[in-house]
Design brief:
With 616 residues, this protein is mainly α. It folds into two domains: 3-154 and 165-386 and 413-441 and 594-614, no CATH class; 449-572, no CATH class. The chain is built from 26 helices and ten strands. The chain has a four-stranded mixed sheet, sandwiched between helices. It has a two-stranded antiparallel ribbon with strand order 1-2. The protein has a two-stranded antiparallel sheet with strand order 4-5. Strand 1 and strand 2 form a beta hairpin. Helix 8 (183-197) packs across helix 26. The protein is globular and about 90 Å long.
Length: 616
């Protein structure tokens, strides 16, 4: 029955992503997919801005040579959503020994929750790969921990207590299971999972932290080394570009702080896996007092199994599960504290002084760390409630089979499927608008043909400056919400972006110093020669979208358009001067880091296939 959790997770993922799976491209807030992407300096993380989309953009640039980039993004998103549920089911099976019904409850918690809905609406599709990798990271790290326990320390010596006998029995079973699997396969799988999580830096941090906390002391140095290799694309890009050497704008702390939902404080919102900073990226059901009901249901399902998760099992398994419980509590409490007055002050102090700390400003992202524990608790609660009997109608618990451990499914109680159906129905019905593209918001977009024509023309020296000013657009074909400008991923030349973010009525400054200079020149109507001196070889004007134009008509009025239609106008700036950009050695180094990341991903997948075939 091992295929059932996979199929169930795929069905849930398809119900959520259904509208997006048609023809067209994902273009929603921070999510931008295009027919073809290019390995520009910005895509490799070597531009002015911090490498927030590395190695994501490099991967799309490589794969879109073979497959349409829109299809690549949809496939990754569907696989990640499925993997989240499947991983949670496997985690419940291995760490709790539950049967199929509780496994499906764990899968539902992992896929059908406010965190997934809000990150989809915000356009953080690649972050969800890091989210999906968390249960798999725990599974592989736990395997390494068990292996080192059995093969290095052996079973507990010299005691005849029931606990000691149980631990020796567990050690014997674990040894039998893993004796035919080489240790290198587990390390390769860990590297592959960390690489998959590392599609974005935040996902890499999430999975890396989980691995370090659950792998055990004996494997700690090795795990850190594997994580550094898996994170090499954005770590190398940060070192080469120097974008991480300057502190971020402290205004981002308040702008990206977690937000309380109606009827709930910030702490309760986060405990229910909600509370994203952008109130517009929230399903409709979470914008009313119905959010209280949904949160109570999720927490009630999880709390029903907390005691079981922390109490039973062999020593190594108990440690792993308790670590996950503590991590869940910390990942909820710290972002809640970060949204208080003194928490905001502390965050502004740190981010304004420590380079690279801006990666932590969206604190609600880290609530993802609570998902493995919540899934385990829900599965344990399903089993616990199914075994409850009236006081005078209790039957003695069946004796465990010889050598049975927490990682082996127990004999299912006949009422477990019924309890599982109640749990699953409650979770889905209290977040109904996650279905079908989060209430229809997640739908494919079709670009006007002008984009393809401009993409074919932009080639040669010089970067691209865009108008109107700013990084976000509201096109008629993209819907009524702001979307990131698709130009940087559509064109083969680097597109200058300031990194300035309008958030909650505030403006958070970015790292694009040269891009800001060029934008200021355009808004004051500077001459084309001044732009050429800044390395600008092209000006792209995007029509039918709001935004500041300033006196840019004075600049473009001195140029002849080489393409123009109702959507786009492209100008060539003559006499462009080469400016200081990434060196050839920097590009080779960045590409080597991407190749290493891809090799880890591939090797991990191969090792997983061999592991599955050789597992007794």
């Amino acid at each position: 029955m091992g295929f059932v959790p996979v199929g169930y997770s795929l069905v849930l993922a398809t119900i959520i992503l259904g509208p997006l799976l048609g023809s067209g491209y994902l273009l929603l807030r921070d999510a931008v997919s295009t027919p073809r992407s290019y390995a520009t300096d910005a895509a490799l993380g070597l531009g002015d801005a911090a490498p927030r989309a590395v190695p994501q953009d490099g991967l799309l640039a490589a794969l879109s040579v073979i497959v349409d980039g829109g299809i690549v993004v949809k496939v990754i998103l569907l696989l990640a959503s499925t993997a989240a549920g499947w991983g949670a089911a496997r985690l419940a099976r291995e760490l709790l020994g539950v049967s199929l019904a509780p496994q499906l409850v764990a899968a539902t918690v992992a896929i059908w929750n406010p965190y997934v809905a809000e990150r989809l609406l915000q356009g953080h599709w690649s972050l969800l790969t890091g989210y999906a990798a968390l249960p798999w990271t725990v599974l592989i790290a736990h395997r390494l921990r068990l292996r080192s326990t059995v093969f290095r320390t052996g079973p507990p010596p010299g005691r005849d207590s029931g606990a000691a006998v149980g631990e020796r029995s567990a050690a014997a079973v674990i040894g039998t299971r893993h004796r035919s699997i080489r240790p290198a396969y587990s390390w390769l799988m860990l590297g592959g999972v960390l690489a998959a999580a590392g599609l974005t830096p935040t996902g890499s941090l999430l999975a890396g932290l989980v691995a370090i906390l659950t792998v055990g002391r004996r494997n700690l140095l090795g795990t850190i080394g594997v994580w550094l290799l898996a994170a090499s694309p954005w770590l190398v890009a940060t070192a080469l570009s120097g974008s991480g050497t300057e502190p971020s704008d402290p205004a981002g702390v308040a702008a990206f702080a977690a937000r309380a939902e109606p009827g709930l404080g910030t702490l309760a919102s986060l405990a229910g896996l909600g509370g994203i900073w952008n109130g517009d990226s929230v399903p409709g059901s979470r914008t009313t007092l119905f959010a209280v009901v949904a949160t109570l249901v999720l927490l009630g399902v999880a709390l029903s199994g907390v005691y079981t998760v922390g109490a039973s099992g062999d020593r190594a398994t108990r440690r792993t599960r308790r670590t996950l419980l503590i991590l869940a509590a910390v990942s909820i409490v710290l972002p809640a504290l970060g949204a208080t007055g003194w928490g905001l002050s502390a965050g502004e102090y740190l981010i304004g002084r420590i380079p690279g700390a801006g990666l932590l400003r969206d604190t609600q992202k880290f609530v993802a760390l609570a998902m493995p524990a919540l899934a385990l608790c829900a599965a344990a609660g399903c089993r616990t409630l199914a075994t409850l009997r009236p006081r005078g109608d209790r039957e003695p618990a069946p004796s465990p089979r010889p050598g049975q451990t927490a990682s082996e499914p127990s004999e299912p109680d006949g009422r477990q499927p019924l309890v599982a159906i109640v749990f699953i129905a409650a979770l889905i019905l209290t977040l109904p608008d996650l279905a079908w593209g989060v209430g229809g918001a997640l739908r494919p977009v079709h670009y006007p043909p002008a984009w393809q024509r401009v993409a074919a023309m932009v080639e040669g020296p010089g970067d691209v400056a865009v108008l109107p000013a700013g990084m976000f657009r509201e096109f008629p074909y993209s819907g009524r919400v702001p979307v990131l400008d698709p130009a940087p991923r559509m064109l083969r030349s680097d597109v200058l972006q300031t990194g300035v973010l309008p958030v909650r009525g505030q403006v958070v400054t970015g790292e694009g110093v040269r891009a800001q200079r060029v934008e200021n020149l355009l808004l004051r109507g500077a001459s084309p020669a001044e732009l050429a001196a800044e390395g600008v070889g092209w000006i792209l004007v995007e029509h039918r979208t709001p935004g500041a134009l300033g006196n840019s008509k004075t600049t473009v009025g001195q140029l002849e358009p080489i393409f123009s239609d109702p959507y786009l106008t492209l100008y060539r700036v003559p006499g462009v001067r080469e400016v200081a950009k990434a060196s050839a050695m920097d590009r080779v180094t960045a590409l080597a880091a991407h190749a290493l990341w891809a090799a880890l991903l591939f090797a991990g997948a191969v090792a997983a296939l061999i592991d599955r075939r050789r597992r007794p």
